[in-house]
Amino acid sequence: MKTKFLATTLLFVLTFTTIQAQEKIKGSRNVTVEQTEIEPFTAMEIGEEFEVVIVKGPTAMIEIEADDNLHEVIDIDVIGNVLYLQTIKEIRRSKRLRVRVTFTDALNEIRVKEKAEVSGLTDLLFNTVTIKTSGSSRFYGTIKAETFTLINNDNAKAELNVTAENTVFQLNQKSDVEALVNSPEFKADLLEDAEAKIEGDVKEFTLRADNSTSFTGEKLTSQTCTVIIEGRAKASVKADNAINITAKGRSELTIYDSPDFNIVEFADQASLFKK
Known about the structure:
Layout: H1 2-22, E1 24-26, E2 31-37, E3 43-46, E4 51-56, E5 61-67, E6 74-79, E7 82-87, E8 90-93, E9 97-103, E10 109-112, E11 117-120, E12 124-125, E13 128-133, E14 138-152, E15 157-171, E16 176-190, E17 195-209, E18 214-229, E19 234-247, E20 252-256, E21 260-266, E22 271-274
Parallel strand pairs: 1-8, 3-7, 3-10, 4-9, 4-11, 10-13, 11-14, 12-14, 13-14, 14-15, 15-16, 16-17, 17-18, 18-19, 19-20, 19-21, 20-22
Antiparallel strand pairs: 2-5, 5-9, 6-7
């Protein structure tokens, strides 16, 4: 009897969930603004097709400007110190749907997925922060932090202005990033078909590029640079003092300026160019 009850309950839940997923709603075109104060969160996850502006403040809060009948279908939850923003019905049409999230010092991780877009209204100040993007999401912002990490996946794109003591980019699949980086230590790791175009000033720069990745860095000035490039990857770098090179496969490396060269390994059909 208990097993039959559980099976019936599960069937009901699945059926209800399916029906809910199929429900659609159109905006009334009567726009209103609602503000909701929420408990502080250490991470936030934004998905679907939300366009969200984030700003730092003393109190965690969400402001939604939308058609008045759409407020009730936007679900705001803080679970396990993570802020989730999602819809319980598919919004087919709206006159306006703008979301503004105010975060506090507690925030240290931002996840952007699916077709969501997140941008910083002003400079985003952190101690340590990690931004994770996936799907076809977008992130735009000026970051100032002690430690900053970007993990870019799938077809996600990020446009950044970063000032940090330590900066790490991990780029995978077909993700893309354009950034201005000012950081004593900068490490970029590119895999698969990822692309990066980076400008700025750093002291120590480490680049690892593999597969069919592309790194454009002739406007990124470093004091010392270490490059490990493999597969069919292509990269251009600029170093004032010294560069350590490991090149394999059919990779292509272009070097700007006249640093001291240290060839750690040069194998296969790798190519080295000097400009």
